Fold:
Amino acid sequence: MAELRLEHIYKTYKGGVEAVKDLNLTVRDGEFLALLGPSGCGKTSTLRMIVGLEEITRGEMYIGNRLVNKLEPNQRNVALAFETYALYPPLSVFDNIAFCLRARSVPKPEISQRVKQVADMLDITDILDRKPAELGGGQKQRISLARALVRDPDVFLMDEPLSHLDAAQRSHMRVELKRLHAQTGRTTILVTHDQLEAVAMAQRIAVMNFGVLQQVGTFDEIYNRPVNEFVAGFIGEPPMNFLPATPVREDGTFLLVAADNSFRIRVPESLHERLERSGAKKVDVGIRPIHLEVVDQPADALEEIDATVATFESLGEEGQLAAVVGTQTVLAVTSPLLRLDRSDAVKLRLRPDRIHLFDAATQAAI
Ligand SMILES: Nc1ncnc2c1ncn2[C@@H]1O[C@H](COP(=O)(O)OP(=O)(O)O)[C@@H](O)[C@H]1O
Ligand SMILES: [Mg+2]
Structure:
């Protein structure tokens, strides 16, 4: 087992696409980290460089204390489970799993023992004699994972491993993969574009966008202290609302006045100092849909904004409101019991302790 360390890693493809830019990331020994980001942000490129299938354009990569840049894939002891399972159809499940051990001339009794052990762990012992064509997606996925794990890798990589499974299988495999990690204690990176997967399985999440690492942390850190608008909008469902505003001092009160004049709210005390220090002339006020409340009784005008209902849907456990504030539409998660119709006037309270501020010029968190 080993720590994986990426130092100033770049990947530039022939033709000039910069898929990964100055990536610095340490995955601790035994850690389960999720690499999360939208399609095309450089996740697969990163994994392929780690496993050795893609050359590193610049930077240094260490597994344990070994510099691995120039090592062949089979010298790195990294295993990658693909999003497509790539099983060999003519071979039985057992032979598919045993394949790489045979290629490395591992003695027969040891092969048998190691295949049985991972098969047991992944609950596929009873299908070892079958052929891939006879199996369902969930089973093929397990075989693909077994084939990677049987090599006893120092670092275990999974690229969108659940993307071909249906919803029920996915939620089942999420639990399984987490258990598997707990059992093997292997340094693991899961690549996904699905925040739910990242949150459900990983100990820390690394968020990427356009080839650049944005933030690394636990879900709580990333959710509560996003470093910029991209991360703030990417983590959390429905996504955070952003409302452009200008900070102004008026009669000793520190206010945020909407760019379109549609609201005036008080800057929460906890943000005074940071906002002043930032020197931001214009900000985006970030508020998550679950932190916007529909209030019947106005209480504090400087915590509330006036809005007009665009749509309201009752979705069983919660209500989802889209409301127009000036020139913007905001989303709010409400009680499902509200009765709201299109064009109704509503007051929305922004929970002051839940407001995020971003510098509109840089989109960085204040
Ligand atoms: N072999 C390649 N040659 C040229 N460009 C590539 C190659 N592989 C990926 N890319 C480009 O690199 C960027 C990152 O791709 P990728 O790492 O596959 O992202 P992700 O896995 O996050 O969807 C994309 O713009 C993609 O088109
Ligand atoms: Mg990919």
User: Anything to note?
Assistant: The mean pLDDT is 93. Residues 241-359 form a domain with the OB fold (Dihydrolipoamide Acetyltransferase, E2P) fold (CATH 2.40.50.140). The pocket of adenosine-5'-diphosphate (ligand 1) is lined by residues 13, 15, 17, 19, 37, 39-45 (CB under 6 Å).
